[in-house]
């Protein structure tokens, strides 16, 4: 099912370059919190064992797929509210939930735990890739 637009989290961004064993998002316009870019770099650093050229190559593939990077300044209050309500969730994951809530868009993620955190947000969990 192709979506016109949605917010994606770090897991969905990393699926684009095949770092995670989930299907990449099928969305025409991707919106992503800037914190997902930072967290993605941390994962890529480990995945590529610090090889800068490989990290930059993956970022060059991810970057153009994102229509807009959402700054935390637009969603800080909502992130804080979610962080208090769900203290066991990573704040960077909650930033994607907050962006979806503020932009009134569905959330696309590879993390099933994020589904249903907010009843106002439609959440699509990316399926695992078939081997």
What does this structure look like?
This protein is α/β, with parallel strands linked by helices. It has one domain (3-125): 3-Layer(aba) Sandwich (Rossmann fold), CATH 3.40.50.1010. It has helices spanning 10-16, 34-47, 52-62, 72-85, 91-103, and strands at residues 3-8, 27-33, 66-70, 107-109, 123-125. Helix 1 (10-16) packs across helix 2. It is globular, with a radius of gyration of 14 Å.
Identify the strand order in the major beta sheet: 3-2-1-4-5
- Percent helix among the residues? 40-55%
- Give the averaged pLDDT, no decimals: 96
**Which superfamily, in CATH terms, is the homologous superfamily?**
5'-nuclease
Q: Please mark out the parts with pLDDT under 50 across 5 or more consecutive residues, or reply none.
A: none
Q: Main beta sheet: strand number and arrangement?
A: 5 strands, parallel
Which structural traits does this protein have?
131 residues, Rossmann fold, 5 helices
Topology:
Elements: E1 3-8, H1 10-16, E2 27-33, H2 34-47, H3 52-62, E3 66-70, H4 72-85, H5 91-103, E4 107-109, E5 123-125
Parallel strand pairs: 1-2, 1-4, 2-3, 4-5
The gist of it:
With 131 residues, the protein is an alpha/beta fold. 45% of the residues lie in helices and 18% in strands. The chain has a single domain, classed as 5'-nuclease (Rossmann fold, 3-Layer(aba) Sandwich), CATH 3.40.50.1010.
